[in-house]
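Following up on my earlier thread - several people asked me to post the actual chain instead of describing it. Fair enough. Here it is, all 65 residues.
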Amino acid sequence: MRVNKWLVHAIAQCADCNFEVSDYQLAQTMGRSHHIKTGHTVTVETGYCQKYESIDRKKGGASDE
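Reply from S.P.:
Thanks for posting it. Predicted structure:
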């Protein structure tokens, strides 16, 4: 089995101020940095997509049908 996984969304929000980042490429890093700089409580919601494939299909093996 082959597994591909990629980040599809991320949102960082501060519980103590109006800080918010919804750019999935920056949310985790900026959320962490905001916490380190201010000591505020920051949550980061992340969503991942995973795709499972048979290795045989990649090699032209039997189909799922």
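The longest strand covers residues 2-14. That should answer part of your original question.
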